[in-house]
Every structure is written in structure tokens, then in C-alpha cells.
């Protein structure tokens, strides 16, 4: 299964990126915490609806796009039109992951429980916190 969360955002050329606030970071962590096994259609639909809700909370009109026979998970599409914009940006993200085996994860880590680590685990990194 292949699915995506996409948003087309057309912004003025002078727009500058900003760091996320605490609420946005918490929302992102909640999104990463959702199981997303592609073999489980319920996981895919939960992730699609979460992505759509994220867009809607930001005032982005969005919809779930299904294939005609609904055998694949829906794509989430949202669009923001900005007067005077000179560029178009497309965001794409898969929300249908591969099955995971928690036994193969490093100590202190588990699927769908995002944490911050001090450096790569292979280089002696340790869990700093959720």
C-alpha cells in the first residue's frame, strides 16, 4: 500500500520558516505515536484522518482521496492559496509503514514511542526523554 499526506502551499517568496511551538511539537509526537502498519487498513485510515485534522486545525481545506475501489488507503489532500504567491510548495509523507518487530529495537526504544536521543544509538547514544 502506498499513501501520502500532501499539502500544496503557495506562499509569498519572502516567507521565512519558523520553529514549531510546543503544541505543534506535541501534535507531531502524537502523529508519530500512531501505529502505521500498512498491512492494517485501520492504521492507515487513522493516520489519514489525523493528517487531515492537522490540516483543518490550521485552516487548510482538506479531503481524503480514495481510489475507485477503495482497496488502497486514502491520500490526504489540502490546499492553501495565497494572493501574490510566486512559488508552490508540495509536502509529501507516507503514513503506511512496514511491520515492526519490537524485539529488534535498541534497549529503551520501541515502535510508535518517539524519543529524543543524544546521538545515533550505534554511536553510543542514549535516550534523553520523550
What percentage of residues falls in helices of 4 or more residues?
10-25%
**How many distinct helices?**
2
Tally of individual domains: 2
Q: How much of the sequence is in beta strands? A: 15-25%
Descriptive report:
The chain has 2 domains: 5-99, no CATH class; 101-130, no CATH class. The protein has 2 helices and 6 strands, in the order βααβββββ. The protein has helices at 22-32, 41-57, and strands spanning 5-11, 61-65, 75-80, 87-93, 116-117, 127-129. The strands form 2 sheets. Strands 2-3-1-4 form a 4-stranded mixed sheet, covered by helices on one side. Strands 5-6 form a two-stranded antiparallel ribbon. The longest helix is centred in the middle third of the chain and has 17 residues, at 41-57.
Give a quick precis of the structure:
By secondary structure, the chain is an alpha+beta fold.
Would you spell out the secondary-structure blueprint of this structure?
Elements: E1 5-11, H1 22-32, H2 41-57, E2 61-65, E3 75-80, E4 87-93, E5 116-117, E6 127-129
Parallel strand pairs: 1-3
Antiparallel strand pairs: 1-4, 2-3, 5-6
Write out key terms for the chains shown:
130 residues; alpha+beta; 2 domains; four-stranded mixed β-sheet; two-stranded antiparallel sheet; 6 strands; flat
Amino acid at each position: 500500500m502506498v499513501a501520502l499526506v500532501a499539502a500544496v502551499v503557495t506562499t509569498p517568496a519572502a516567507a521565512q520558516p519558523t520553529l514549531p511551538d510546543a503544541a505543534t511539537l506535541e501534535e507531531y509526537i502524537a502523529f508519530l505515536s500512531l501505529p502505521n502498519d500498512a498491512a492494517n487498513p485501520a492504521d492507515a485510515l487513522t493516520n489519514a484522518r489525523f493528517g487531515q485534522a492537522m490540516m483543518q486545525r490550521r485552516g487548510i481545506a482538506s479531503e481524503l482521496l480514495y481510489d475507485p475501489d477503495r482497496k488502497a488507503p486514502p491520500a490526504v489532500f489540502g490546499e492553501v492559496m495565497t494572493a501574490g504567491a510566486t512559488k508552490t510548495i508540495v509536502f509529501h509523507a507516507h503514513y503506511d509503514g512496514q511491520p515492526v518487530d519490537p524485539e529488534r529495537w535498541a534497549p529503551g526504544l520501541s515502535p510508535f514511542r518517539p524519543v529524543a536521543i543524544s546521538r545515533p544509538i550505534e554511536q553510543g547514544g542514549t535516550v534523553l526523554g520523550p
